[in-house]
Records
---
Amino acid sequence: MELKKQISEAFASHFGGEGTFYTSAGRINLIGEHTDYNGGFVFPGAIDKVIMAEIRPNDTDKVNLYSVDMNASASFGLNEADAPAEQWARYVFGVCREIIKRGGTVKGFNAVFAGNVPLGAGLSSSAALESCFAFALNDLFNGNSIDKFELAKIGQSTEHNYCGVNCGIMDQFASVFGKKDCLIRLDCRSLEYEYFPFKIDGYKLVLVDSVVKHELVDSPYNKRRESCERVAKRLGIETLRDADMEMLDAVKSDISAEDYMRAKFVIGEKERVLGVCDALNRGDIATVGRLMYETHEGLSKDYEVSCEELDFLNDVAKECGVTGSRIMGGGFGGCTINLVPDAIHDSFIATVTEKFNERYGHAPKIYDVIISDGARRLEE
Ligand code: GLA
């Protein structure tokens, strides 16, 4: 059933009547992985996989939620001590608290939500949920006085303070600022950004989901960030944005081999994002693809956030003649993103499905990417 219809039926049956509809999106990232919390560049875009919510203030100081996908309800108050036990409800609780902490207003409301962003696939379902509610509560209770940068930060702080993931700003930024048919080159240090109309004639972006569930909470994600911060500290700089290989090599003997590899990846990745943007401007798609493969290699060997299945998907892409392929998002499972010439699109999907199935006993999931708008109120 269509998402909106499902939500509106559940809303009527749980709370009666109607509310206002809001939505926000999951994201892809063409290149620039693990650079956001290092003050570097990223190149994401919102996609047509979304979280949608119907919300109505209820004139109390309680929030009542119903998740269609989980077929579960949760209720909580708006004080710090009222954190719900359910992990999924903490994303919404965190958004409420972060708005209040910033001096904004949140009052009680009833909400039903559902989504079609695959969970744990590295497509940022949690950022979509956070931005959907941040946008909605800004609209419903704050006359849209909180700017979009702050909405993204509200989502990020929710992850930090209520969900245990020390993430960067990329996912929430893409989810809030996403624009149809555009990727966003974001400088994560200054938050300056530029929309790049993204359509490469003759190519498609395809996501291949290994269906290995990535779970960033309790994953080594936070450890990666700590490595980067240690190296930056040793170099006397704020973030690795300001480091180059010469500086890193000069402290090589003072840092662990592991920290060295992590920082080496980040320094290379920061340059690759800019390289991809330049290559796109020149129409040099071969270079875009080559840099994507380099990123995969670095994420796998130096940053060590790959897994066997993702490396296998990358190898098959290479064998099939896919122009560029790499792990997307935090890693430890989830998807590869593939830049695929139209001429081999169908055969690549058939081959990767068959080979993966042969090796792992189940098919990967395939998603075509459609770059779409981010957080907004649904007007109709
Ligand atoms: C996750 C985090 C992001 C970013 C990516 C890796 O998606 O939420 O902030 O660090 O991993 O690029």
Note: The CA atoms of residues 106 and 141 lie 6 Å apart.
---
Amino acid sequence: MTVKTIILAAGQGTRMRSAMPKVLHKVAKRSLLQHVYDTSKLIDENNIIIIYGHGGELVKQTLSEFDAQWVEQKEQLGTGHAVLQADSLIDNTDTVLILYGDVPLLSKQSIDSLLVNVTEQSMALLTVNLDDPTGYGRIVRDASGKVLKIVEQKDASEEEQKITEGNTGILAVKGEQLKSWISQLDNSNAQQEFYLTDVIEMAVNDGIAIKTSQPDYVDEVLGVNNRKQLSHLERVYQSLQADKLMEQGVTLLDPARVDCRGSFASLGQDISVDINVIFEGNNSIGNNVSIGANTMINNSMIADNVEVLANCIIDNAVVGAGSRIGPFARLRPQAELAEQVHVGNFVEIKKSTVAQGSKINHLSYIGDATIGSKVNIGAGTITCNYDGVNKFRTVIEDGAFIGSDTQLIAPVTVGKNATIGAGSTITKSTPDEKLSLSRSKQISIQGWQRPVKKEQ
Ligand code: UD1
Ligand code: CA
């Protein structure tokens, strides 16, 4: 069975008060349309049609990697008119699924429960019972409960406005039926729009039954019309992510204060996450890892038994087993730490490997460096990797000890078990085992006196 998914995404989104088309606004760092597209991919990945309109070129450009057919709706004349634009792409034998580009949280389960209701004799409609159905089309049923039609808020009688069963807008139907109905739509209604919802009455007249189902929870079918609704769906999404993490055995000190804007390639056992932690990209986290407060982890691999203390940023980095990071450490892309490495406060590491058991505990910049095992880097050490034009590497071999406040002017190599005296500026490679230092001799001036303030 071919399921063609038509995603309606041509609406203007005026209430967002944004220069950007509404469907490009994001929940968990993914655009609204990306969420809907990703869910559609789970249904039938080769048959996705996106109806775009207002600011549509930008939508198309931004999401150009989508494997979808883009159809322009030049004027937004209503949801029925939007679907009509895709008429030539719909085959009679298709099952057509209509989704909204601004309803990001609809689940695959809800779509599946809709699709089973589509046959030659029936079409499927996703409805929702709402405490306050204002703004929604209402599902009008007869005394026996059979669906008769959908009436839009603006066209509804006072009696009809009391109906609390709302139309989500999500439906599925056989291509042949849909094609015949959308060609007959007119716009003689309060909004002078071509309403897709009018096909319900046409179906009933053609003897096609309307089978309804409901989503697992209401937030799944909520759309975004303004920034408040956007923030609501962000929180809903985050709370679902937090639930998933806890189901997988992660301790969250406060599930309301962790944000996952990406995915996990793997999650170990007994991970503990303090408050205000943000995960982005694709992370992999081992067993017994604890993550301190106010930490951001992006696209990184964290092995077993790692302790990340508060206020760290770990971005596209690798942290080996048993290592301890932070507080206030920043691991930048291609920082690769082996096992048992300690990185302390105000240490920045970029494009560098640090072998087993090495320590960089305070106030250092390590960039473009290869650091051996059991190296101790003193406070305030800087690898001077950049001459303003080119980058150069620093190599520090196993067992070396770098005294505090050392500048290593790359390219430079510090030999095995070498010691560098504090306060040195190292411009030449240093031999194994020896103490090297570059420091002017300390002197004390005899008879020197402090200046005194001049009389006026
Ligand atoms: C629609 C439904 C209503 C339902 C509500 C749920 C109709 C006539 N009404 O109303 O029954 O309760 O959704 O939110 O269908 N769009 C286009 N082109 C257009 C118009 C809309 O692509 O010309 C897209 C929008 O981008 C949006 C979706 O269709 O993704 C719904 O449009 P919207 O204007 O929000 O519909 P409502 O009037 O709220
Ligand atoms: Ca809407």
Note: Residues 227-247 form the longest helix (21 residues).
---
Amino acid sequence: MKMTVLITGANGEIGHGLIDHLAEMDSVDIVALDLHPLDESLRRKCVRTIVGDILNASILESLSTAHNFDSMYHLAALLSTRAERQPPLAHRVNVEGTLNLLEIAITQSRLQGREVKFIYPSSIAVYGLPSLSVKNQTAKIRESEWCTPRTMYGINKLYCEQLGNYYANFYRQLDAEPTKGRIDFRCLRFPGLISATTLPTGGTSDYAPEMLHQAAQGNAYVCFVREDTRIPFMAMPDAIRALLRLEAAPRESLTQQVYNVGAFNPSASELYGLVQQAFPKTEVSFAPDPKRQAIVDSWPADVDTTAASRDWGWKTSYSLEKAFWEYLVPATRDRYRSM
Ligand code: NAD
Ligand code: AKB
């Protein structure tokens, strides 16, 4: 029997990697939804693609009527910089959109009489360190620490983690009869992600992938954060592996619903050093934007991934050096070779 999965925000950076990997499995039917038409290369890997808004309840209801989903990867969101520029829209998409998807998931689980897995990518943006000196004194941050975000996006993500917990454990707790079917909510707090094949839009960790992609095209880059800025990152293939591993983990081995994952945490100038080794003609200058800088300064310098390793065997495949020399540099060179 094939599994059916729904992916929202399927045309985004993670969507691209996730669809490629799931399509290789052969045992999965992918239903993909995005505000924008899916790239041609992805469309043929899906049994159905829908151009639509997660705020449109009738689209979601008709999807739910047509398919029995085993798992839902809810990726659609507005990222931190974009969310800060349009806070009410971000709240609608990031929170109301997620609520709509959780409603579909619980309806599906009731109708099917079994658990539907809901995989939710949260972010290091849920953390909010009060000052640079506290950030510099804080070692790898644990899931329960400093959950005091200062961005609309971080607040949206933290609240949706809680919503997921509510839908999984306390939904309609006053009903006379216990709710039939439940959601199996599983969440990763991702660091900044760096892909060789797609470019980010609207995030604040974007300086790292932007620096690499501009250098690979022979363009100068003006970095919008200070040279000493340090946050955790991860190569996109590891992010996809983490999503798939968490989805596949036995329920009984999971002791929490929200897990940090991360791989390396170079400063912006260390990243520049690597980019310069790979593309010696590259010109990077640093002109910090104080407002975007304040956002990354409130994000942790590193995350503690002990719980993910213990509960579902998380281990990064890409150290910084390996990510650079075996994935990012060769693949970005290939991507821009003919340009
Ligand atoms: P992305 O911006 O590349 O993709 C998001 C996709 O969502 C886009 O294709 C967009 O068209 C779609 N979308 C936006 N609003 C929509 C709506 N109303 N209805 C339907 N689709 C809509 O982002 P990504 O990097 O692929 O991130 C996916 C998820 O992972 C997001 O939830 C993001 O918060 C989370 N995440 C990403 C990173 C990262 O560094 N990329 C880090 C942490 C968490
Ligand atoms: C962003 O910068 O908004 C994202 C994230 C870290 O969640 N890349």
Note: The pocket of 2-amino-3-ketobutyric acid (ligand 2) is lined by residues 79-80, 123-125, 153, 192, 203-205 (CB under 6 Å).
